[in-house]
C-alpha cells in the first residue's frame, strides 16, 4: 500500500507517493536523491543517517517517511549557504581533518550542529557524549572533537 508524503526538505516543498514502510532515510536517498545522508546500520546505532527533523536531531533510519508528514527536514546538503559556502561546522571538519573515509562525517556534522545550537561552548566531555551515537571506524575521534570545538567557536562569532 502506498501513501503520499509531503514535507519540506532543505527548505523546498516535496511530495511523493511511497510505500507505507518507507524509511525517512530511503525517502531522502532514493526518492529525493540526496545521498549525503548515509545508511550504515539500519538500526539507529551508527548515526550515519542523522538529519534534523523540525529542529531536532534524529536518525532517519529509525523513522518512517510518513511520520515526517508536514515536517521540516534538513540534511547535510541543506546546511551550506546557497552560494556553496560551507557551514562553519563543515568548514571546521575540513580544516581540522575531522574525517578520514567520510562515511560518518555527515551524521557527525549534523549532530555537532545540534549540540552547538543547545550548548554554544561545549566541553570535550559534552562533545564526546553528544557524538556517542555516531560511530566512526576510521578515526580515534580526536580530530572530530577538535573539529566540533572549532566549529562551535566559528558558529559563535
Walkthrough of the structure:
33% of the residues lie in helices and 17% in strands. The chain has a 5-stranded mixed β-sheet, with helices on both faces. It has 2 domains: 2-78, Ubiquitin-like (UB roll); 88-156, [2Fe-2S]-binding domain (DNA polymerase, domain 1, Orthogonal Bundle). A hairpin with a 2-residue loop joins β1 (2-9) and β2. It is of the alpha+beta class and 157 residues long.
Short characterization:
The protein is of the alpha+beta class. It is built from 5 helices and 5 strands; from the N terminus they run ββαβββαααα. The chain has 2 domains: 2-78, Ubiquitin-like (UB roll); 88-156, Orthogonal Bundle (DNA polymerase, domain 1), CATH 1.10.150.120.
Tally of extended strands? 5
Kindly report the name of the CATH homologous superfamily of the largest domain: Beta-grasp domain
Please outline the major beta sheet: 5 strands, mixed
Q: What is the total domain count?
A: 2
Proportion of residues in extended strands: 15-25%
Shape: globular
Tell me which CATH architecture of the largest domain applies here: Roll
Specify Rg, calculated over alpha carbons: 15 Å
Work out the helicity level. Answer: 25-40%
**CATH fold-level assignment of the largest domain:** Ubiquitin-like (UB roll)
Overall mean pLDDT: 93
Poorly predicted sequence stretches spanning 5 or more consecutive residues: none
